[in-house]
Specification:
about 180 residues, alpha+beta, about 25% helix, globular, binds nickel (II) ion
């Protein structure tokens, strides 16, 4: 198992756009494996490349993780993900982010999405996510475009969260 440090706001890498992956090299496979280890260890239900300092389009998720034991994990690795359909129906859910530790806020997003992606074996796949999974897919895909969930909040709320994280860093609560 190999963990990578998770990058915390306001690091500029979190605001950058990740680039498409052209070849699924051994390095990309190792990155995906490390990202899954890092996500499960955190623990979290999703992690995008930017959050471990890589600027390529890959994220990992497992929304079943909180409920399940290690043996029933259902890790999904999405390379070059693209949302091809969004429901009109909206869902509001409290979101958090491993790069914005211990801060949560309600975010409004389409309740369901269909996402097209390439898996680790290079196969093109589609996946429909609903509710928590829909939020997770959109949240992680946002990361690859340099967007954070706090960007959907008012400036006041966003700054409050950023100040809290800054204080936690200063107090040594987070690295
Ligand atoms: Ni996040």
């Amino acid at each position: 198992m190999s963990l990578r440090p998770i990058i915390i706001v306001p690091d500029p890498v979190l605001k950058q756009i990740a680039q498409p992956i052209e070849n699924i090299t051994a390095e990309v496979k190792k990155q995906a494996e490390d990202m899954l280890d890092t996500m499960y260890e955190a623990p979290g239900i999703g992690l995008a490349a930017n959050q471990v300092g890589c600027l390529n389009r890959i994220f990992v998720m497992d929304t079943a993780y909180r409920k399940n034991e290690e043996k029933t994990r259902k890790p999904i690795v999405m390379i070059n993900p693209e949302i091809v359909w969004r429901s009109e129906e909206i869902s509001v859910m409290e979101e958090g982010c491993l790069s914005i530790p211990q801060q949560y806020a309600e975010v409004e997003r389409p309740k369901s999405v269909r996402v097209k992606y390439v898996d680790l074996s290079g196969e093109i796949k589609e996946h429909i996510g609903e509710d928590l999974e829909s939020h997770c897919i959109q949240h992680e895909l946002d990361h690859l475009n340099g967007v954070l969930f706090i960007d959907y909040l008012s400036r006041l709320k966003r700054n409050m969260i950023l100040r809290k994280v800054e204080k936690m860093k200063k107090d040594g609560i987070i690295l």
